[in-house]
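SEQUENCE-TO-STRUCTURE ENTRY
===========================

Backbone structure tokens: a row of integers, each naming the local backbone shape at its residue.

Task: work out the structure tokens from the sequence, keeping to the layout shown below.
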Amino acid sequence: MTIDTSTAITLAPGAVRLTRGDVDRRRRRNRDYLVSLTERNLVQNHLIEAGIGDQLWHLHPSRDGHGDRGLDRHWGWETPGSLLRGHFLGHWMSAASREVATTGDAVLRGKLDNVIRLLAECQEENGGAWVFATPRSFLRRLGEGRETWAPQYAIHKTFMGLVDVYRDLGDERALAIAHRAAGEIAAWARGFDRSRFQEILDVETGGMLEVWADLLEATGDVLYRELLDRYWHASLFDPLLDGLDVLTNMHANTTIPEVLGAARAYEVTRDERWRRVVEAYWEWAVVRRGTFCTGGQTSGEIWTPPFEFAARRGSKTQEHCVVYNMIRLADVMFRWSGAAEPLDYMETNLYNGLLAQQNPETGMVAYFLPLAGGGRKEWGAPTEDFWCCHGTLVQAHTRHAQLAVYAGADGVVTVAQYLSVRAEAAAAGRAVGIDIRLLDDAGYVGPDANAGPGGDRRRPRALRTRVTVTSDATDAVRLRLRVPAWTVGEPGVRTSARWRREGSWLEVDHAGGETCIDLEFPMALRAVPIPDEPSTIAFLEGPVVLAGLVDREVALHGDAGDPTTMLAPDDERQWTQWLVRYRSIGQDAAIRFLPLHEVTDQRFSIYFPVRPVVSR
């Protein structure tokens, strides 16, 4: 049984869902993509490994044009023969189960049932335990120190998908498949002494540690306590406990899933050493390292040195997998500490990572986000690539709603992100309904359709939202509403309930019935320098990074501390909607700026060297 050690508690998937806005549109596009993939194609490599695949591979080995070829098979990293084949299925199962649990999607539920049935057939054909697309020989080769890329990484994805189907939907079939498969992995791991197995752990294991914690919670079987101990990655965890920076120049997403596993190990066992590892990792990954303006900290999948970012901008700067998993880690840090800083980090990465690296028109992923001048996002294809980031993409866009509202054992309900959602939270055993509604898709509108605050006809610079709280309770329920770190001055609050400002929070006492809270968080155009190069800046409005549409790095003339000397509002109105658009002023050539997460195929720059204007 999980031991509750949290300040805040994540709501169950069915207790909170998106209702409108751009984030929900992204979710819907992701859902349509999940549905578009056929079950046999998803399970193709598991079927082939079990010897029960069909013959299409040699009857139709290739066709003219990728579009035709992709209709009957999955390629890229899912091509039979790929060392990581089969990894995407686990991501798909995880995404599908969360979407079904949140929305009750009957079509996805049916497809998921078929996938579980096919995996059960694979397991039976393989002798009752092995269920993976990865050949058993890959683990033998790994144990012999031979090249296999990362077989445990690929194996973990199948485990992850099965466990998430069980956790989100209560599907006992998925749990039984995972439990039987775990026995064979345990038998393999026992074949090495501790020293040799530590060397094996230096080859990417993905989230195996997290799966063992999840299965310990689900089954109570002592096998998983043994595996938790065996998967303690000493070369990573021990230096973290000693206060050392072991991240600089290390592959980032090799280690983040291990630390997420340590977090789950702590939540299930309450062994403090796991918690200390997680807190030390966050300290070195975020607090002592800093970030790019987008919230990312990696380049070419590698951690940057602390606060040394200028030399790391390139075409492959920010990896989507890192963004997704670091948001998951930020969720852990908030739940454990109740602090607002992880939520601010989460918000920055949501807009300038998850949304920025999903094509708003096709729903496909950009593996990397280029931060070099004049870069372009390179989008994956629906059935041609299946990169690791392709997998985290489909998971990410089923999980946004749960970032918005948290419950608390102390009776406090936290509004963490301002997304349009409807939630049912428990506060000290009482049901509380929460409805968050942004007042337009982007949250940038005035009190009516045409005017800003005070009748100003210009686009208002504020995120405006309405939070409605309902309950049958007669006792007061306290709400904590995050004041975003980018807020300029004091937020506007209109409510009949008692409220007060406490640091990064607005605290509101809901006395039962219905309480309506209208919020306005003022924002301004900001110049954010790269940490080690103050004269090179990015432009942000609220949490959103602005991208300049240029095909190369361009220097601007102005005051690096005052972005209004370089940018002015532009193209701000479209029918009833306010748009976030800027243009350069006082420059040699005009540049248009729009939110980074709206950029599709245009070349763009985020960082601009600034040269002071020389008066004559």
Observations:
- The first helix runs from residue 21 to 36.
